[in-house]
Amino acid sequence: MLNLIFNIIINPIYNDVPEPLQLGFQDGASPGYSGIVDLHDSIFFYLVLICVGVFWVLGSVMLNFSAKNNPITYKYTTHGTLIELIWTITPALILIAIAFPSFKLLYMLDEVISPAMTVKVAGNQWYWSYEYSDFIKEDGDAISFDSYMIPESDLEVGQFRLLDVDNRVVVPVDTHIRFIVTGTDVIHDFAVPALGLKIDAVPGRLNQTSVIIKRVGTFYGQCSEICGTYHGFMPCVVQGVEAENFLVWLDQV
Ligand SMILES: *[C@@H]1O[C@H](CO)[C@@H](O)[C@H](O)[C@H]1NC(C)=O
Ligand SMILES: [Cu+2]
């Protein structure tokens, strides 16, 4: 809600970027992201429960058993089987209640269900390169390009500092897209919060993840594995467009 108000007052153009002083999440644009937010919310419930419980017990001990309120100590009260059982079994049950939805989501996000197209992503020091192996140009090579951050001196009005790139990964919305991610030098991490994407780009290995983008938009992320001096200057920008516009883009690229 706060983000929404922020957006309307300060930044009327709708963009999926982090905002100054942001406390909440970005607006999601994929089912995976909704899953992550829902898991966060349900775990937060236990967090509040545990915090209230712990601080309540701690507070009442400090109040009721202080030297002033309780001058004579219970020297011979050293244990109580019932309460010890309760405070051992309850946390165990809470951990199980957290673990179940957590693993469920983890394995669901890991699943790549018959993708309609594949984008290869390679992390380099310090830029990303993308390849659309499903689309071959006239010369027989697949469509591919590098994506560099736009330096501060070249920013145009409306572009985001440290976030915008010269070439965005354009993909169609409402389509199962697979990203195959690797690194060419050191470990990078391809991450786009609003799409629930975060996957290591490891040299010599291929990692895969998939996404289905639910609305048109430009989604900004940053490399999320410390990879050297310019780690902070290799953002990942995914642009979700309608299928027709994707074809138009393919024609131009
Ligand atoms: C990607 O690959 C690395 C190494 O092979 C692995 O540690 C990591 O868990 C994989 N998955 C993701 C989501 O990063
Ligand atoms: Cu990095």
TrEMBL record:
Reactions that this protein is recorded to catalyse: 4 Fe(II)-[cytochrome c] + O2 + 8 H(+)(in) = 4 Fe(III)-[cytochrome c] + 2 H2O + 4 H(+)(out)
Cofactor note: Binds a copper A center.
Domain Cytochrome oxidase subunit II copper A binding, first and last residues per copy: 114-252
Membrane association type: Multi-pass membrane protein
Presence of keyword Plastid: no
Membrane-traversing stretches: 43-65, 85-107
Source lineage: Eukaryota, Fungi, Dikarya, Basidiomycota, Agaricomycotina
Assigned protein family: Belongs to the cytochrome c oxidase subunit 2 family.
Needed co-factor(s): Cu cation
Functional note: Component of the cytochrome c oxidase, the last enzyme in the mitochondrial electron transport chain which drives oxidative phosphorylation. The respiratory chain contains 3 multisubunit complexes succinate dehydrogenase (complex II, CII), ubiquinol-cytochrome c oxidoreductase (cytochrome b-c1 complex, complex III, CIII) and cytochrome c oxidase (complex IV, CIV), that cooperate to transfer electrons derived from NADH and succinate to molecular oxygen, creating an electrochemical gradient over the inner membrane that drives transmembrane transport and the ATP synthase.
Native source organism of the sequence: Cantharellus cibarius (Chanterelle)
Protein name as it appears in the record: Cytochrome c oxidase subunit 2
KW Translocase (keyword) present: yes
Keyword field: Copper, Electron transport, Membrane, Metal-binding, Mitochondrion, Mitochondrion inner membrane, Oxidoreductase, Respiratory chain, Translocase, Transmembrane, Transmembrane helix, Transport
